[in-house]
Amino acid sequence: MTIDTRALGFGSGERAVYAANPWASRGRLFPEDGSLTRSEFQRDRDRIVHTTAFRRLKHKTQVFISPDGDHYRTRLTHTIEVAQIARALARALKLDEDLAEGVALVHDFGHTPFGHTGEDALDEMLKPYGGFDHNAQSLRIVTKLERRYADFDGLNLTWESLEGLVKHNGPLLSATGEGTRGPVPQPIRDYCELHDLELASYASLEAQVAAIADDIAYNTHDIDDGLRSGLLTFEMLDDVPFLAKLMAEVRARYPHLEPSRFAHEIMRRQITHMVEDVIGVAQRNLDKVDPQSAADVRSAGHVIATFSGEMAETDRCIKKLLFSRIYRHPDIMRIRAGASQIVSDLFGAYMNDPSLMRSHYWVNHIAGLGETARARHVGDYLAGMTDTFAIKAHGELFDQTPDLR
């Protein structure tokens, strides 16, 4: 992928005309005085980092359950890696780095314990009550469930940060008002009644780079963790031509490299190629669209920061490899079944006796709520759990807890 290095914003501090402008933000749901020392997007990022939800990510599964080893990624380390890549892309494209970083840091707040397994189990339990969506749960956390400030619930983030959180993967509504990926989750619809996030438009370019940074990070680091676990081998990587070429380059330059260094050399090259590919594509798309404001990016009608066709095919091949060799591996599936049972068991127990949710701030009021409202509170409580807390809670309530090793 050819990129125009003359157009890159390396360390210049210059912001392009199409970048989000923190000094012209659409504001917060609850108006606040500005800061003398930080931009509005800096304040958002700082609020995100200081949340309980951010700290909980350190004990939430990425792929491998934490008891498997200290060196595997968790949701927290994955999130930090996404933020680093998002910030690098934002700087190269002369965007607002703080907004891109903030969207990256908050994008996984709504994930349940045990990764996508926990999300699937909780969604199944909540289907009669509207289902569960981790993106909508992230919005609930930052607009309602974090209870830190005297003047409002949530973090009172700017419109741009909330828009990026909700729409970083694209519009949720078509031009005709139909859901682009099924019905829009109720928590998102409810919030938009108060603070319209314009669900039919694309998000800012800062949110777009956060979204593609997520793909780059987990495509790379799930391979790294797979190699560490033994579920992947270097021979298996030959199934992806892009990875086979990278391995050949490393072997040619370092013929006697130890496996751990060999793996790292592959991963760092993979990230570099993917990042440079996105920059080159974004530059060409920006030349075509010629946006003169962040609003022009939102109305472009397509994603600007994305992979080239060739890299998109590589992305598909890598995902296919990860699904077949890791995500659907019999050992992982056995652990997933146990994790699913833990979430399902806890949901049933808390629905039957809400007083068991001793640390939930609504515990004294839930018994008087209707079934749907009670289920949503149980969903909030379960989604907020770490892996370790969920396992411990299950052990306290049930005679036998699945072994997730």
Automatic annotation (TrEMBL):
UniProt keyword annotations, A-Z: Hydrolase
Organism: Neorhizobium galegae bv. orientalis str. HAMBI 540
GO molecular function terms attached to this record: dGTPase activity
One Pfam family cited in the UniProt record for this chain: HD_assoc
Domain HD, first and last residues per copy: 75-219
Family under the similarity heading: Belongs to the dGTPase family. Type 2 subfamily.
Protein name (Swiss-Prot/TrEMBL): Deoxyguanosinetriphosphate triphosphohydrolase-like protein
InterPro entries, sorted: dGTPase (IPR006261), dGTPase-like (IPR050135), dNTPase_2 (IPR023023), HD/PDEase_dom (IPR003607), HD_domain (IPR006674), PHydrolase_assoc_dom (IPR026875)
HAMAP family xrefs: dGTPase_type2
Any one biological process term the GO annotation gives: dGTP catabolic process
